[in-house]
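Quick question: what would this complex look like in 3D?
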Amino acid sequence: MITAEPRHLEARYDVVVCGAGPAGMAAAVGARERGAGRVLLVDREREAGGILWQCIHHGFGLHHFGEELTGPEYAQRCLQQVIDQSIDVLTDSYVYDIGAERRLKLMSGSQGIRVIDAGAVVLAMGARERTRGAIRIPGERPSGVLTAGLAQKFVNMMGLLPGRRVVILGSGDIGLIMARRLTLEGVEVLGVFEIMPYANGLNRNIVQCLHDYDIPLHLSTTIVDIRGRDRVTGVAVAPVGEGFRPDLGRAWDIACDTVLLSIGLIPENELSRRIDLRLDPVTTGPVVSSTMETSANGVFACGNVVHIHDLVDFVSQEALLAGRAAGDYVTGHRPPADNIRLLPGDNVAYCVPHTLSTDREHVVYMRVRRPMEQCVVRFGDVLERRLRYVFPAEMVNITMKPRFLENFHGDALRVDVLPR
Amino acid sequence: MLYDVAIVGGGVIGCAIARALSRFRLLVILIEKECEVGFGTSKSNSGIIHAGHHAPSGTLKGELEWAGNQMWDALDAELDFGFARNGELMLAMTAEEVPTLEHYYRQGVARGVRGLEIWDGARVRREEPAVSADVVGGLYAPTAGVVNPYEVCFSLAESARRNGVEMLVDSPVAGIGRDGDGAFSLQTRQRQVQARFVVNAAGVFADAVARMAGAGDFCIRARKGEEYLLDKRLKGLVRRTLFPCPTPQSKGILVIPTYDGTLMVGPTAAFVEDKEARTTSAAGSDEIFAAVRRFVPGIGERDCIAEFAGLRAVADGEDFLIGRSAQRGFINCAGIQSPGLTAAPAIAERVVALLREEGLAMTPNPAFESRIDKHVRFAALPLEEQARLAAEDARYSRIGCRCEQVSEREIIDAIHAGARTLDGIKFRTRAGMGRCQGGFCSWRSMQLLSAELGIPMTAITKRGGCSWIVCERDAGEAA
């Protein structure tokens, strides 16, 4: 176990990072790079690294480290940077409140209740999985209905199986990864059911986790009934028509003992709400500037707490930016404020960051609302990029250079994804 | 061993009776078919302590609703399960419904219900700004309150146990006979129980239990209610429990600020054949959200975090069925639907009186202790107190469930207080009840159950029976 638990916890830190997953680790490193003296990284688990430890499959790191790694390898590299940067890591601890002037309250299994003042705060709490209640699947309430991530924890961290005959609802990446993982464990994976007419996970996962193992993917189909008094004994599934209404006349039954849910992630913004940060109703995460600063002074945010990423590499890059900005904030080096707002237009669900500054280069992350082939992404009249295809499941990122904005004099740029 | 009284059914009624009897020097056993008390109808109750003016006059319901209502402050003072008189508002959506408000106003006043007021639409919206502009008036009843019904059950059971009542869980009663000396003999899964008196508080199965003993041929039907729990983001949107004007079948679909402040909407009301049916349905969800949107437009499906269903026990004629039976010594306490929770403490007193009339001698139990150990709710304590407890035991400051901010120590306390399952922990501590619905904490709660009870992870269940959570890796071939 690699932790860098401080023997002595300071009463004041230059930067405190809430959450030591990939976002938090990169943010802490970023803050140190820019001269923040004392940086504290807090995580509720016994070990820093976040969800990466249970992601034992490969496919991480190509963008950020230039080679393909497993989740634990990726976590290990990030941790090594954290340790090299002399960052204090406090695990088994939980930030449960942020008060005025960035006064944090911590519950810690090793340190008891502690109050810490922070020069800047980086929120990196990640996301949680959507549950059965969120989509109100009808039927009985047996055990055996669980999120794909919890199943991943059981299998990869605890050496236990969630069941023997599994149906997966939703084609999110964690569900796809688990379809393969459970198959390798000898569990029968009977199919993946997706209410949308297209898959919600990365294309490479559809191929490598479903096609390669002959696991059927049923699009425009959903679970309409869960059966079983004590434990799941089966489900009924049905194709959906207009307005996602299930066609019960065409429903069929599947005997199974487990239903895995992979129906999306929700940014974990309990702390953000406590300090009344301005939130984006689409991402449900904080509204952030081009330096990943939230609506509260000196409070930055990055990773899945801001918006759901499909690759950890982009989380690390965004977090590095947030951490560096937090470091700049406490050392008094503040870049010019943003002067352009981004307005999501046609087929654009959201853009992060929400604002840009004309004096620097930015990466704009965005998601489309529906798939489109042979299209262009257009930033007002200043920038147009051709894209072969777009999918809601795959984040689009566009680099915005200052020269694109040289002749732009407005204060708001509309972003559209349009057919060519 | 010959018990003085065997209570069949560990819902809120059975638990209240058990505790009421524990004030006397009696040998009492409570027999529950589920793995923990309160896991049947009581667990999925709305948790409303009704104001006292709902049930019609001239019925047992009408009499015991108001009597019960007045007993909750004292009960909470002793057991500290948490009770708040948040008040209720019955809303009229049209001028035609205003006479209904007046009817209930008069019914309440005649019964002595205090503080009733009829408000116009403007006053309703001033007091409850989230209510629709279409509402024309409301009947305000400050005596209404809320509790967490499962916590009431656990507290009553804990108090009863502390005062000597024996608890036999996981034990459906399969048959009831009479021995030569007249004592009842109840056949359960584990053992035969002999008792001089029996109280039948078996909820939707009370008819079957009565029939086993030849103590009644009444029929109990199950009327299902679905409820939907909303994200705590909406905490505070509504402060009082909101009712539409009721129909003869049902109080209608309500907006209920639970004791914790989280909103719940429901319930539906439909008879079902299957007395174990706990299914929720798309139709139920549609019905509830459509009804609720009429009077609180700000509530919608997107805030739903969990749904569940419970079964009301309905006797013919809709009233409570409480009384002696053809079998001397066998008391039926059946058909306890709404306002059954409200009436529960009064029902328990009524049953004690019936047992006395039936010939059960009662002398006070000098060792009776009215209070139970206070359960720490760490997150609700002031900082200094939290720091003090954390210094005493670090498990207080180790987070177990983060959505509801439950510490590891609280989960361990719940296990020591009798929780044997994930649901048992959830309903005692709230761990797993929040927006992630156990996604983050259930494995941790399972580890604690495993360590404290000395059982493997594979033996842990959601709520007993076959509700296992995980299985062994290599058992595939063996199974």
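Answer marked as accepted. The radius of gyration of chain B is 23 Å.
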